[in-house]
Design brief:
Blueprint: E1 30-41, E2 48-66, E3 69-81, E4 88-99, E5 104-111, E6 115-122, E7 129-135, E8 143-145, H1 147-152, E9 154-164, E10 170-179, E11 187-199, H2 205-209
Antiparallel strand pairs: 1-2, 1-11, 2-3, 3-4, 4-5, 5-6, 6-8, 7-9, 9-10, 10-11
């Protein structure tokens, strides 16, 4: 059990400038794009390699407290297309959160297929790479799926590794472990991309007000 304080109600006074307090998430703030994405996903006749184009926006939010716990974070939206196709291949929303007191990084994610997850990891404030994990059945870094996905493409594990590069880009590699009926081994559904900044972030509301 973490060493939580006896007083679980009193809230700290956060810094109004979220962008100055994001720790390892700071280089990710802004608007990004890339046409270099690659998705390897399961199909009936074997794995499919699908290139994709991605636009991701990560905007700072006001600091969040749970009693004495304090998070700074980014609200994000990822939109993904196949090359030369206007139909959405993947859409995802959520938050990236940084807890300075514990060095904890959290990604919450939700997709419009009836699935959500909370992935968690540890990092130094100046880390250039960090790894987060969500596990089926966990009550603190878990995965929740609709009944069909739980039956046909059960997600047992989700891992994402983020790397910040010296040229101002950042990349991610993620692996989703799927249990599929009729397959003897788990399937590693992977996605990776390297993103280039096309727009600066908008300061969070309290920072703008100040």
């Amino acid at each position: 059990m973490p060493n939580y304080p006896a007083n679980i109600y009193t809230e700290p006074t956060p810094d109004v400038d979220t962008l100055a307090n994001l720790g390892p998430l700071a280089p990710m703030a802004g608007i990004w794009t890339s046409a270099q994405g690659l998705d390897i996903n399961p199909k009936a006749d074997g794995p499919e390699r699908q290139p994709y184009i991605e636009r991701m926006e990560l905007q700072p939010i006001d600091a969040q407290t749970n009693g004495p716990q304090l998070y700074y974070g980014l609200r994000y939206h990822t939109h993904i297309l196949k090359p030369d196709d206007v139909e959405t291949l993947h859409d995802q929303v959520g938050y990236w959160l940084w807890e300075p007191a514990t060095g904890t990084v959290i990604q919450t994610l939700s997709i419009p297929r009836g699935q959500t997850a909370l992935a968690m990891g540890q990092a130094a404030a100046d880390a250039k790479s960090f790894r987060l994990e969500a596990v089926r059945g966990s009550t603190v870094n878990g995965i929740c799926s609709n009944p069909f996905l739980e039956h046909a493409f059960r997600t047992d594990r989700f891992v994402i590794t983020v790397t910040i590069h010296d040229d101002g880009t950042w990349s991610y590699e993620q692996e989703t472990t799927l249990i599929i009926p009729g397959q003897a081994e788990p399937f590693a559904h992977t996605d990776r991309n390297r993103l280039v900044k096309i727009g600066e972030p908008t300061p969070n509301p309290t920072a703008r007000a100040g």
